[in-house]
Amino acid sequence: MIFNYLRKPTPSNLLGSPDAFRYYESAMFSMGWWTPQKYKILYYIAAACIMTWSVVYLPIGISISFLKDIRNFSPSELLTVLQLFFNSVGLPFKVLFFNLSSWRFHKAKELLGKLDKRCTRLEERIEVHRWVVHCNKAYLIYQLMYICYTISTFLSAVATGQPPWRIYNPFVDWRQSRQNFWIATIHETMLMLCTATQTLLSDIYPLLYGLMLRVHIKLLRQRVERLCTNPSKSEEKNQVDLINCIKDHKLIKEYTQMIRPVISRTIFIQFLLIGICLGLSMINLLLLAAFWTGVATVAYINGLMLQTFPFCFVCDLIKADCDHLEMAIFHSNWLNTSRRYKTSLIYFLQNTQIPIAFIAGYIFPISTSTNISVAKLAFTVVTFVNQLNIAERLKKD
Description:
Elements (H helix, E strand, L loop, with lengths): L21 H9 L9 H30 L5 H26 L1 H16 L4 H39 L17 H48 L9 H54 L2 H40 L8 H14 L6 E2 L3 E2 L2 H20 L2 H7 L1
Antiparallel strand pairs: 1-2
């Protein structure tokens, strides 16, 4: 069933960490990112067509339309086209970065499977199940938000009698007849639904990776807190438990290293684009847009914020989780243990003192404060435009 990966946990039928990507993988297959075992040639042909249409044609079509019809655009239409243009220019790079590193996706899933093997207690497996459901819900929420933007822009176009995004179409001139208008509008809407899904795939995977990283750090912290608390365990068994925790931490670090390069490049591009696109959207919404255009712009702004803010917030939580893990090691029951145990514990503690962090483009940290700083640029642009009355001048022209 379609909602099978949103089910409540039952002891006999629990989901594992790799199941957090089930809906994501289905979308990957539909967009040409996931090669099946059979009919590979047909799939490659279909994938090439989809990629060319939604990733390559879109920025080219918008550029041609912009140069050809710039004199006919209203100020609100001009900003709508510009905000889409900048986002569409960044999309090919995000798609390219992920597909070149798709092997990291498979390797990360394998590492999550290894981490699941350490979840021997029922409550640990139930906790993993819950976070897997959270990841699948997050994907569906993202999908809904991106579809809402596309549909709201389509409704805006129908209300105003203009194509939604004015994408250049060499085969249909929407101005010639009402039929051509509907053909062009439906074509643009289908194109944007496909492009929105491509954008979704490149936007949400950092969040899914980050959420699953958090749950395994949390479970490791709980195992550390249980060290040397069972009086029936021998010193040798306590040593084995500590060594297993150290191995778990090593797996978590390996998982982080596996996903870090892809996330770094993607978030860097998003940070570069979000300030520009958010600024254009805010100007359009506050100063120029009519009601239906404003509805579509609000949906677009929500999509922009979803690109970076949730993962930036998760990065802050991951840093806090690492601090809690470090404190759990220090406050664990080690006072009456052997010298060998204490030596291993010190080694473990030293390794955890380097927190897990992600750097956008290896330049600036991915965090909520960085995201807010980038968003402030948009409001600065809006204030500048408002102070100079640029919007009023555009309306008069």
